[in-house]
Specification:
Layout lengths: L2 E7 L8 E7 L8 H14 L22 E2 L2 E2 L20 E5 L8 E3 L2 E2 L2 H10 L19 H11 L6 H5 L6 H12 L8 H14 L10 H5 L7 H19 L1
Parallel strand pairs: 1-5
Antiparallel strand pairs: 1-2, 3-4, 3-5, 6-7
The structure holds iron/sulfur cluster and FE2/S2 (inorganic) cluster (FES).
Enzyme class: oxidoreductase
Catalytic activity: a menaquinone + succinate = a menaquinol + fumarate
GO molecular function: 2 iron, 2 sulfur cluster binding; 3 iron, 4 sulfur cluster binding; 4 iron, 4 sulfur cluster binding; electron transfer activity; metal ion binding; succinate dehydrogenase (quinone) activity
């Protein structure tokens, strides 16, 4: 395949940045999107130019590091991570526009790399349980109803990639926060912090500058792990319950 790439280039956090065009030949349909960017970077390095900076780690859809906006869609045309997207999803001769996540709480560090530290700070505010460390307890010693276990597991699959924020017209992190709150608040191990968790995580989400949810649903259709929209309804329910509990205390 031959491609015309238009890529956001930005030297550092304070550089104004801009789109730069590149022609790339010899792209196989079997390449992943990141391998296509690797091919471009090899060419740029051979020509003595600065390679395009982009984030990646596992390249297996599990770490959440990768993520760019491709032709206007977070993670591109398939509902998967950028590392699991393949060039067979594009046509020979196609123009592909590649940009970083666009959201004020995710400032650009360089080119396509953004700082997603805001997510880490939200997790630090309440995305954990209090449990003794040491050997793992026997699997069946804490009984959990199957529907709760299934829902907790589905929400635990959130990889913190940030596509939901990038896709949302409000730059809301509600789907991410709702996945973490739903996962932990459903399980017995998450009960000691059930009330403080949701209050503190929502407070941190607001402090980071993420927008509010207005039910547009772009987050859930862009989410590579298909975190359901109902998790946001559950976040609202948990928040309301936590406010009532803290008013009683
Ligand atoms: S909810 Fe989905 S899109 Fe958002 S961070 Fe988690 S995995 Fe990524
Ligand atoms: S590189 Fe890990 S999810 Fe894409």
């Amino acid at each position: 395949m031959k491609l015309k790439l238009k890529i956001w280039r930005q030297k550092n956090a304070v550089d104004a940045g801009g789109m730069v065009s590149y022609d790339l030949e010899g792209v196989s349909t079997d390449m992943s999107f990141l391998e296509m960017l690797d091919t471009l970077n090899e060419k740029l390095i051979m020509e003595g130019e600065d390679p395009v900076a982009f984030d990646h780690d596992c390249r297996e859809g599990i770490c959440g590091s990768c993520g760019v906006v491709i032709n206007g869609d977070a993670h591109g045309p398939e509902q998967t991570t950028t590392c699991q997207l393949h060039m067979r999803s594009f046509k020979d001769g196609e123009e592909i526009i590649i940009e970083p996540w666009r959201a004020a709480p995710f400032p650009v560090i360089k080119d396509l790399v953004v700082d997603r530290g805001a997510f880490d700070r939200i997790i630090g505010a309440g995305g954990y349980i209090t449990a003794p460390t040491g050997s793992s307890p026997e699997g069946n010693s804490t009984r959990i109803p199957k529907p709760d276990a299934d829902a907790a597991f589905a929400n635990a699959t959130c990889i913190g990639c940030g596509a939901c924020v990038a896709a949302c017209p409000n730059g809301s992190a509600s789907l991410f926060v709702s996945a973490k709150v739903t996962h932990l608040n459903l399980l017995p191990q998450g009960q000691p912090e059930r009330t403080t968790r949701v209050l503190d995580m929502v407070e941190q989400m607001d402090a980071e500058g993420f927008g509010g949810c207005t039910n547009t649903g772009m987050c859930t259709v862009s989410c590579p792990k298909e975190i359901p929209f109902t998790s946001i309804a559950n976040l609202n329910k948990e928040y309301r319950r936590a406010v009532q509990q803290s008013n009683k205390a």
